[in-house]
Every structure is written in structure tokens, then in C-alpha cells.
Known about the structure:
The chain is of the alpha/beta class. It folds into 2 domains: 5-184, no CATH class; 193-282, no CATH class. 55% of the residues lie in helices and 15% in strands. The chain has helices at residues 13-29, 59-94, 100-114, 122-139, 147-154, 156-192, 223-233, 239-250, 268-276, and strands at 5-9, 34-41, 44-51, 144-146, 199-204, 210-213, 254-259, 280-282. The strands form 2 sheets. A 4-stranded mixed β-sheet has the order 2-3-1-4.
Amino acid sequence: xxxxxxxxxxxxxxxxxxxxxxxxxxxxxxxxxxxxxxxxxxxxxxxxxxxxxxxxxxxxxxxxxxxxxxxxxxxxxxxxxxxxxxxxxxxxxxxxxxxxxxxxxxxxxxxxxxxxxxxxxxxxxxxxxxxxxxxxxxxxxxxxxxxxxxxxxxxxxxxxxxxxxxxxxxxxxxxxxxxxxxxxxxxxxxxxxxxxxxxxxxxxxxxxxxxxxxxxxxxxxxxxxxxxxxxxxxxxxxxxxxxxxxxxxxxxxxxxxxxxxxxxxxxxxxxxxxxxxxxxxxxxxxxxxxxxxxx
Length: 295
């Protein structure tokens, strides 16, 4: 009779039993006579998996099948349930100086990077497959596995990968925080000054440039822009910076956005929308746009 495999935990015994019992039922349907024994030793709960009533020529196949089923189940449990614990620990220990709200934002961003929205789940499957391989390798040499110890000492590479993702999430979090502060300052500058023009139309060009027109479709000319242009020409500045600076200087009451076909605008419109809010309207299609524009 094959030697049983024992899996122990002190953290999630009920969840572990629920997951593994499901695998046992699947194996039984496949014709493998597998039973579970439950032992309690101190704070640990051990689940023993025994194969019974096997012919000698069936033992090797049955044992390998059982290991694969158990490894797949444990890998799924670690990635689905335990991963969030690991991420919280990394954030708590490495970024203790952030407040709880910021830590939760970092955790949410990390999980979004690990599991991006959409039908493509290859990142999740890739992590699970790596963990599953580690478990199978371990079970080739050992008949007992304690879940917490295995995660802490045998999945260092997996945890290092998660730590790298957390670090990337923190970088994005800081960039977003800086962006929001930048937007807040721009909104403040706009709010404290009187509008110097009633309406501006922005035509984003296919070649990456833009044109500013007034409400009469004439090129915008204003004395406030003269000094701005001199300052900007003395510095290295791109078209997007130039546009935002001009809009902040003029603080128009209304901004109408037009897009030529295939115009590449990057983050410019998002910044304009965030700074000027309800002052921004979108053209639904005209001669300036050269194409129908959906809001």
C-alpha cells in the first residue's frame, strides 16, 4: 500500500479541508480509492490522504495522479487565498511609514497589476503553475507538508516576485499621488483668476501638434500669451506642456475639444478634463475633426 501524504495547517484548516475534499471526490470519480484522515496535533490540523485497494501495477500511476491533484489544489489555494496575506505582509514590513489608507491603495494597485482586468488570465495561471511545480518537487521527496512552513521557506522565489510587483505598485502610487497634487495646484491657479477669454477651441492634429481657436474660429491672440511664449521658448518644453500652460494662463470659461482623425493625444485631454472639469465639452463631429468623435 502506498505511504499516505499528509498536509497540515494551523491557519486555515476548514478551507484546506473543503478544497482538498473536493479533489478527493474528483479522484474517486476517476476510479482512485482515496480517503482522508483528519488528525489534530496541538494547533495543527493534518489531513492524511491514503490510497487503498490498489493492484500493484496501479500504485505508481495512482500516487503520481494523487500528487498532481493535491499540488494543483494547494497551488490554487496559495495563489487565490494566501497571496493577499503575503502582499499585506510585504507592504506592512517594507512600507510601514504609509498610513492604512495608503497601504490599502498600494495593495489594490498590486492586485490589479497581478490580475489585470479582462479575459486574459495568463499571469494568474503562470504564478499558479510555478507554485504547483514547487509542490510536486517537494512531494517527490517528502510525505508531509505543512502549508505555512512551505510558503515561508520553499516559495522564496514566488515571494520575491510578489515583492517586485509591490515595489512597482508603490512607484505607480507615488506617480499618481504626484499627478493628483499637480492637478490640485493647476485647479487652484485656474480658480483664483478671472477668465481672460470666453471660449477656446482646441484642434488636436494628426501630426501631434494642436491649434487654438477662439469662439469665432480665429487663431487665439492675447497679450497674456506673449510673455508666456518668451518664457517657454527659453526652456525645453513639449507641445502638451505648452498647451496646458496656455490654458492655465487664459483660464477660458469654456474649452471645446476637437480631434483630427488618428490624432495622438496621450494624457493631455485627461489633464485638461481634470483641471477644468465642467468647462470642457467635446465636439461630436465637424469639419475640424474630419471624423465622427464619440464622447
